[in-house]
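Dear Dr. V.,

Thank you for agreeing to look over these. As mentioned in my earlier message, I'm a first-year student in the group and I'm still getting used to reading structure tokens, so any feedback on how I've presented them would be very welcome. I ran two proteins. I've put each sequence directly above its structure. The first is here:
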Amino acid sequence: MNDLLFFDYNQKSATLLIFFFHAIVFSSLLFNKGINEQKKHSKWLAVFIFLGALYICPFMLGYAGWYSVKSYREFMFFMPFQQLFLIGPVFFFYIKTLLNSDFKLSRKDYIHFLPAVAYMIYSIIVFVGDKLVLDEFYFYADGRDKDLDFWYQMAGLISMLFYLYKSLQYYLSYRKLSLQEVSYADEIAFRWIQHFTIAFGLILVLRVLFFILNPEWGEFGSKYWYYLCFSILLLYISITGYSHTIRVTRGLNVHDLVDLQPIRNDVKKDANNQTNDSLDLKEWKGKITLLFEADDIHKNPNLTLSDVANLLNTNRNIISKAINQEFDMNFNDFVNKKRAEAVIKMLQEGAHTSNTLLGIALDCGFNSKTTFNRAFKKHTTLTPKQYISKNRL
């Protein structure tokens, strides 16, 4: 009975056990939320955190003495805890589903999981060979856990660095397109992704440093400090990731507001059967300016590039080019500048004496106080309160 419950509680094993337990809890909560609310990104994050929990196991259980007990040692040898080839793809597809709720795995996407499948087959071959066929250690004759082999750890690091790069590339494309497509880009900036990516990047930087400082990855030695740092970052990802999921559930579900497809070059015909492409961009500048001044469309907090194009009976590409080249800014900055100018006009009329600054900002089309303050300062170099004070309004 004692052998069944064997776990040597000490500073190292107990500390990692606490982090392991929290990761399992948050993974379960996220997976349950993903199923109940049909949120694919919650399920992907749950899998990522679960893989992180498994990643801790060899050292948590190793410090608890499992490698020194025959039955436990064999379990450690044949159980592939560290799925290094899975962590990167899961991270990448979490980012994709968070930014695009319509994303579904296609056949070509499954190629990303082939290295993980290959390593799983390798693990099965090792188990069958040593336990079922030979009934003795052949593959494990050296007595070292295959998960901790240098080649596997290095290959896993390269895999994760690759998927970190792909995720950053995808996110930057999303941000660039959102600034060109919608007037509420700050509200769908997904700051959480930036924090998540930084945390994951720190994990990989730590791995590189520990590879340099202690290349014998199979030896426990100072690896505890790496796993402690990893566990802390994993706990941060678990708590903040779950918190973000709750905020999304409460109404910030914005990951399907921007289509991550390139702006199409389709061209509509106008009433005179002349393509709008033939019109000079300066003429489009005048049309756009007149539309905003006459109809105050910037007051629509959900205004998009497509909305403007439809109102002017043209396509997004034309409007985007006109704003980029003639106004020298992206669509998001252009609309927020119009909103800031509308706020200034209301301040000059004394609206702030009977209304709050936030109320005025919302009336002019801003979605949040943060976006309002940032856009106003970018346009005037002053905060709203500084502007009022400076102009004695």
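The second protein is here, in the same arrangement:
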Amino acid sequence: MEDQGGVGLGIRVAARRRLLFVIPTLGCGGAERISALLANAFARRGMVVQIVRLDRGADPVFVNLEPEIKVHALGLLSGWQTIFRLPGALLKLRRLLRHSDCVISSVTGASVLSILSLVGSRVPAVIIDHSHPSYYTRRIIHRLARSLFYRRANRIVVLTEESGRALKHLGARVLVIPNPVEVDSIERQKGEALKLERISSVRIVAMGRLVPVKGFERLLTAFATVVAHHPAAELVIWGEGPMRTELESLSTRLGISARVSFPGVTRNPSLELAAADIFVLSSYTEGFPGVLCEAMACGTAAVSFACPAGPAEIIQHEKNGLLVPNGDVQALVGAMDRLIMDKELRARLGHEATRVVVEYSLDKIVARYTSLIDEVDCAG
């Protein structure tokens, strides 16, 4: 196979491949959850899997890992103190890379560190870019990181066709593989969801980090109109982040605080999504809205802004969910109002939504990653 010019081409197929995942933390972020899901799947298939987390290893763990997966913490801190710890972290990572057949990294910081550690090595590198390219237009450090380091990877996995088109200048290195949906976990939760206590006739659920890009202020504004028509409705926003106080204050100013809750991070997102009547995605942009797929796999009727990228590739409007123009809060109001009033529509959309697992099943996505690892591992 032709050399693609990336870091470390030339490793041949091993009897039992040794994979090293590099991620920032083992926290509740989407990238961390997907990395853990893939790592577990490969471990169950007989590969030797290790995970490197950039942090000190003292932060809370929100992912479940197979017992044979070994986790290493590089001990990097936030802020300027990282500079002093960086050389030691690079050396430790390089030692681990030396005994790996392929490195798979997620999130910009982890990917840059992986590429730096691989200089002069023949170990192939795969970067999973979870963000839509428009995210980088507002962050110069991310643009520089992509420009300087991403070209050194053997493959860059993006999650949607739209993201792939935005990175077409990187050529053959870019490959589209969406995030998987863990079907088995979801099936176990559907029955449990029916047992949860309800305080309302209709439960609307959103989920994600409480950060600006998730657009939860747009959802709150829309819900203020919805609840005026349907006072028994409730909105539950799962997640944690720096905007908690701001969002709670907004719900108070809108007069809806009695109908809105912010319960924090859940260790069982499938259960909460399955217990919802309606799921809403209000983001300004998405890399790939895995939580949308998970809600749909649970059979929950979904409505989403048609933001870049992902929702329009996942939702077929009026067939398995509802799409509204990105930023059109009144259209979001109309879609939620319609779903609240029409129980049959919710049931029909929810039933069709479960078919999403055919396209994004874990087995299918892992097979695509296995082919990718075969390709880069045998190159040269």
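From my reading of the second output: The chain has two domains: 18-180+361-378, 183-359. The longest strand covers residues 18-23. Does that match how you would interpret it?

Kind regards,
E.
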